[in-house]
Design a protein that fits this description.
The protein is α/β, with parallel strands linked by helices. It is built from nine helices and twelve strands.
């Protein structure tokens, strides 16, 4: 019985050392090296090559090494076994830090002051809106969205959430489905996207959605923060909305193509903040520890936790 590491772009030997220390009785093998395919019961994956997990007759579960699982479903030959995602308190905290940081930047007009500093301008208009007068809308009410909502409320923001299916969350106004989207957007000054990438959410942040955001709020116009998945957004539509003034600013941590190409106009647009997909980096030791604990649970006969629904894509 062995654990197969199937990943691209990461230092696989570092991961092998972590898992070997955590699971000393289980051999850890690496995709691309010789191994007995019949011995593999578990796979830890990050963007494994198409079809590379086929022909593992005793495979019992696949674990994503990151918070997202869309990279797994990109494999049209993915084995039909349970898939588990990472739910890491450290990752959740990091994401909330990112969301709160950029909501506060927009609340306190920091991009404006950064620009004025570069131009040596002392602006006598130093009025600041109160957080309670700024409406934040969070798309995606899983672990990440709920934690971000709680922490934004502590800062005083007027927070609401949207999800595909109805959710009841204490202390949070919620909207759901296409029927709730119009009202949700219409009360949103800062839109925060923490949605997973699924066939239903691909390209969701487009011209139509951006045009539905509140105009004339306390910030003078709406802002976008996308720290979910890059292919949720249509970047040409975001740029057009910024240039038209229907969107006042955007903070983007994820992109349609990553790394973001050097020729992308997002790099130089004065109303865009670019970060390199680091809003909530998984701490490797924590992720390996979580997966190893899941494997020990399965070996003890307990059910797998944080199982993905393939029909929903998360």
């Amino acid at each position: 019985m062995s654990l197969l590491l199937a990943m691209t772009g990461w230092h696989v030997e570092d991961w092998r050392a972590r898992f070997a220390a955590l699971l000393p009785d289980m051999p850890v093998v690496i995709l691309g090296e010789p191994f007995d395919r019949r011995s593999v019961h578990y796979v830890a994956s990050w963007k494994h090559p198409e079809g590379s997990l086929s022909g593992l007759p005793n495979l019992a579960a696949v674990f994503s090494l990151g918070a997202g699982v869309d990279h797994l479903f990109a494999d049209t030959r993915l084995p039909e076994v349970p898939i588990a995602r990472v739910v890491d308190p450290d990752l959740t905290t990091r994401m909330s830090e990112y969301v709160v940081l950029h909501c506060l930047r927009y609340l306190r007009q920091q991009p404006r002051y950064d620009r004025q500093q570069r131009e040596a301008i002392w602006d006598d208009d130093r009025n600041q809106p109160a957080a309670r007068s700024v409406r934040v809308g969070i798309m995606g009410l899983g672990e990440l969205g709920q934690d971000a909502a709680r922490k934004l409320k502590v800062m005083g923001f007027d927070v609401a959430g949207w999800s595909r299916s109805p959710r009841t969350i204490d202390g949070l106004v919620t909207f759901s489905g296409s029927e709730g989207m119009v009202d949700f957007l219409g009360r949103t000054d800062i839109l925060v996207s923490l949605l997973p990438l699924t066939p239903d959410t691909r390209g969701l942040i487009d011209a139509k959605l951006l045009a539905g955001l509140a105009q004339g709020g306390r910030l003078g116009g709406p802002f976008l923060i996308n720290a979910g998945r890059g292919r949720l957004q249509v970047e040409a539509d975001i740029l057009a909305a910024l240039d038209a003034g229907t969107l006042k600013g955007a903070t983007l941590d994820v992109f349609e193509t990553e790394p973001l190409p050097a020729e992308s106009p997002l790099w130089s647009h004065p109303a865009v903040t670019v970060t390199p997909h680091n809003a909530a980096m998984s701490e490797p030791e924590a992720v390996a520890t979580l997966i190893a604990a899941q494997i020990r649970r399965l070996e003890a006969g307990a059910p797998l936790e944080h199982v993905v629904d393939p029909a929903r894509g998360y």
